[in-house]
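Researcher: We're teaching a course module on how sequence relates to structure. For the next exercise, students receive a sequence and then see the predicted structure as C-alpha cells, so they can try to spot secondary structure elements on their own. Here is the exercise chain.
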Amino acid sequence: MVKCNNLYDNQNLKQIAAAGNVKVFEYQRDLSVTPQTAVTAYYSSEMNLRKRQVLIELNGTPWVLQAGAMQWTAGNVQMGSGIKGVGDFLGKALSSKVTKETTSKPEYTGTGLLMLEPTYKHIILLNVGEWGSIVLEDGLFLACEGSLQQKVVARSNISSAALGGEGLFNLSLTGNGIAVLESPVPMEELIEFELDNDEVKIDGNMAIAWSNSLQFTVERSSKSLLGSAVSGEGLVNVFRGTGKILMSPL
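Model: And here is the predicted structure for the students to work with:
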C-alpha cells in the first residue's frame, strides 16, 4: 500500500478541472526560484503562466500516454509498449511520420496513481463520446483512455493540406472515453461551433479540433478572384456538415 502525502492537501496545488478519474492541478506559485529567476516567476504567475499537471487515478482501465509524458506512478501500475506485433509497429511508425506524433504511445494499466509531467500549456479534458469521432491538430494529444480507437485520417482533398496550413494527416480519436489535450490557449478562450448541416469558414489554421464527420476544404473567400482580392481574405478554411469545431481565437 502506498500513501501519498502533500498531494491532494498541498496548499500550492489547486484542482482546476476533473473528468472521470482524471484531475488537473495547477501550481499557484513557483516556489523553486532563485534571486535571478524570482522576477520572471512572479510576472509569469500574474499572467496565468503556471505549471499544470495531470493526475490519473487508475482503477483497472488502461490509459495511453504520449511518449515521455509520465512523471511517476504509485501502486500496482504496469506499463506496456502499446505496440502489438511488427505490423502494428510499422503502421504506427508510418503514422508518426505524417502526424508528428510519437511512434510508441505507452499504455498504463493497474490500480494506483499516474502523474504526468508538468507543462505550461493549458489542459483540456474532452469526452470523446460527445463528439463520436474527433480530429486533433498536431501536438494536442497528451493522453486518453485505452478504450478509444486511435486512427490516422487524411484530408478529403490535397488543397486543404497545401493551402489550409493544417497538414495532410491528423490523429483521430473514436469511441467513448476521456481524452487529455495540451492546448496553447485555455478552454475559456476556445469558441465551440455546433453545425447542423451548415458551414463555418475560418481565416487561418485556428481550428484545433473538429468532428470527423465534417468535410474540410480550402476555398476562396469570395466566388470570384476579384472579390477575394478586394476583401483581403483570399483563402479560408471551410468546414461543412454536421458536427462540432473547437477554435482558438489567437
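Model: If you want an answer key for the exercise: The two ends are 46 Å apart (CA to CA). The first strand starts at residue 13 and ends at 19.
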